[in-house]
Amino acid sequence: MSSGRQTAGGPRWTQTWLGGARSAGADLGYPGQRLGLPEHGSQAVAGYGRRLVALFVDWGLCMLISAFLARAFELSPPGRSLLTLGLFGLQAVVLTATIGMTLGKRLCGIRVVRLDGRPVGPVWALVRTLLILTVVPALLWDRDHRGLHDRAANTAVINL
After folding, report:
1. Which of 158, 155, 160 is nearest to 117 (CA)?
2. By C-alpha distance, which of 125, 92, 96, 121 is closest to 111?
3. Collapsing DSSP states into helix, strand and coil, what is residue 110?
4. Mean pLDDT across the stretch 124-129?
5. How far is 34 from 119, CA to CA, in rounded Å?
6. pLDDT tens across 38-96, in order?
7. H-only helix segments in 43-135
8. Backbone angles phi, psi at 64, to 5 degrees
């Protein structure tokens, strides 16, 4: 049995479908091209790394605040976890609705924008955040680096 390397008859059949559409020769363009966003620089779709760091910063700050509050109000560990989740959701809704970014996003130089040019606003910030809190929609991405939460709210995360 072959180990995935090229054989005498050509590449293994798994190399075309495991590598995705690009390995089969499809030109999908760059992330954000279909949305009318530039490929690089300001206003380009933010990369995965910056988004992940922003998430960790936001979550870490919420954990820090909930640790202090849990100590002050003598909360149990499950109570502290729910408080962390609630703080994360609250800050995501309020800050995304008002300024388009959380503290973690600001530190990473990214922001959330609606694709129709209007402000994100409280309703779409709430929809987006509720979907993020369920985790799965945030893990399913399209080729423009938009999770299901971004698609539902008609938003994209871009570089500042």
Report:
1. 155
2. 96
3. strand
4. 96
5. 21
6. 999 999 999 999 999 999 999 999 999 999 999 999 999 999 999 999 999 999 999 99
7. 48-73, 77-99, 103-108, 121-133
8. -65, -45
